[in-house]
Amino acid sequence: MSSTAFLLLDKEPMNTIGINVLQPLLKTQGLEVVTGTDISEVPEDTRLLFIETAANDAWIKLKEQLVNLRVNCDIVLFNLDENPELANRALLSGIRGVFYTTDNADVLMKGIRLLLENQLWYRREVMCNVLNRVLQFNKDTLHKLTEGDIEPVKLTKREKAIIALMSKGAKNKEIAEQLNISPHTVKTHLYSAFRKTKCRNRIELLSWAQQNIPDEIR
Fold first, then answer.
1. Which end of the chain is less crowded, N or C, counting CB atoms within 10 A of the terminal residue's CB?
2. What is the DSSP string of the chain?
3. pTM to 2 decimals?
């Protein structure tokens, strides 16, 4: 299992939380901690990639960085200011968690432990906000469907199997290993499921599945 945590630091950091707080906490969990300022430096065995995200144009910079990421790992943002929309976007984009500049060591440790258990780490209000967006999406979709004839969505057995594993927290690589297919094939099936269900991301797809095929993803 990957055992490295990489701290991608801003070249002009707003504080030293990455070195002085996160690094020793991560080491207590048995992780080797590596730091750098270039995403190309992220090693192959990285399990958690912490990206410092403090600038005003943080989302733009983050997208530019992730385009150059070549390692399959969980992404976490840290050093966020009180910017709820950035946290909302992060959650909808599949980023596993966020830490704020105001978080103390106890909060950081709790979040790290949950992330290592393949859980998410977001504030309750962020989770609620994103869930409300998903529910509104489903409401709007239902309204559109009821305006005309409803065409049933037909997912393949493989697509359903992938969604079922995804609902249990499995990532693409883990899904590929369990189904004995390649990660690329997993992505292909997911894109097909997105198209059929008109979902824009994994959260919306899981919400759709829970409402439409609950017995098949348990």
1. N
2. ---EEEEE--SS-SSSHIIIIIHHHHHHTT-EEEEES-GGG--TTEEEEEEE--STTHHHHHHHHHHT--S--EEEEEEE-S-HHHHHHHHHTT--EEEETT--HHHHHHHHHHHHTT--B--HHHHHHHHHHHHHHHHHHHHHHHTSPPPPP---HHHHHHHHHHHTT--HHHHHHHHTS-HHHHHHHHHHHHHHHT--SHHHHHHHHHHH-GGG--
3. 0.61
